[in-house]
């Protein structure tokens, strides 16, 4: 009986390590926070370049690049928002 108990405990220990998240993987919350921070950073950078262009400190090429990256970031966020709303509406349509 003791042999079976130790075998079960050892098997459980191996299974527990197999189901735990691997080192270096991030949680969905951390990934979302990182994406939100990146979005805010992109918008802030675009605003700073636009201000610098108004004062003549930045060339027009960098202004166009900053505006394009800001537009891409906003389009990405809008697309993700639309998909989340669509998924939520699909869940609401499911019969209970």
Automatic annotation (TrEMBL):
A GO cellular-component term linked to this record: bacterial-type flagellum basal body
Record family assignment: Belongs to the FliE family.
Compartments where found: Bacterial flagellum basal body
PANTHER family to which the protein is assigned, alphabetical: FLAGELLAR HOOK-BASAL BODY COMPLEX PROTEIN FLIE, PTHR34653
Protein name per Swiss-Prot or TrEMBL: Flagellar hook-basal body complex protein FliE
Molecular function GO labels: cytoskeletal motor activity; structural molecule activity
InterPro entries: FliE
Record-level GO BP terms: bacterial-type flagellum-dependent cell motility
Key word Transmembrane helix present: no
Keywords for this protein: Bacterial flagellum, Cell projection, Cilium, Flagellum
